[in-house]
Design brief:
Mean pLDDT: 80
Structural class: mainly beta
Strand order of the largest sheet: 1-2-3-4-5-6-8-9
Number of helices: 2
Order of helices and strands: HEEEEEEEEHE
Helix content: 10-25%
Number of strands: 9
Largest sheet: 8 strands, antiparallel, barrel
Low-confidence stretches: 1-13
Radius of gyration: 17 Å
Distance between the termini: 27 Å
Shape: elongated
Strand content: over 45%
């Protein structure tokens, strides 16, 4: 049993090597996020990136969110990075996104996240994470804390 656990941790850490590519998608919301201006929240997001060093991923992102109450549905683009803690799949992330809605809502939102990359196969993960996005437009109504469930595919160097 100890050998199997060791093998799993070695396999996971091998996925976070420099030069590997990453493609991912996530769902956020479904009433799993909260801020002062939303009722029902549902969002989808796509990510693509590359490991620039072992355990360090830089990525770009694009997304769509149905926000609910006071603001229109909105689109976002951004960039971020993740640091994978060696050999266990836990990651810490920082990102920034620009949000635009059809009305006069534009916002710049830096954020942080902590999550876990659970490998269901050698290259595919399920990635639950908790995140916080800070609004520069209106902190009390638009800053968001939430849970997102994603999946990732780790490619290359094999």
């Amino acid at each position: 049993m100890l050998f199997a656990a060791l093998l799993l941790t070695l396999t996971a850490s091998a996925q976070f090597e420099e030069g590997k590519k990453y493609v991912g998608a996530s769902l956020s919301g479904l009433d799993l996020s909260y801020n002062g201006s939303k009722e029902l929240s549902f969002g989808v997001q796509g990510k693509a990136g590359c490991f620039v060093a072992d355990n360090l991923l830089l990525y770009g992102t694009a997304g769509y969110d149905h926000a609910g109450k006071d603001i229109d549905d909105y689109f976002s683009v951004g960039a971020g990075g993740r640091y994978y803690i060696t050999q266990n799949g836990i990651f810490l992330g920082a990102n920034v996104k620009y949000i635009h809605a059809n009305s006069d809502y534009n916002d710049f939102m830096p954020g942080v996240e902590v999550g876990y990359a659970f490998f269901v196969s050698r290259t595919v993960t399920i990635e639950p994470s908790i995140y916080y996005q800070q609004s520069f437009k209106d902190h009390s109504n638009y800053s968001t804390i939430g849970l997102q469930i994603g999946f990732g595919i780790y490619l290359g160097n094999d």
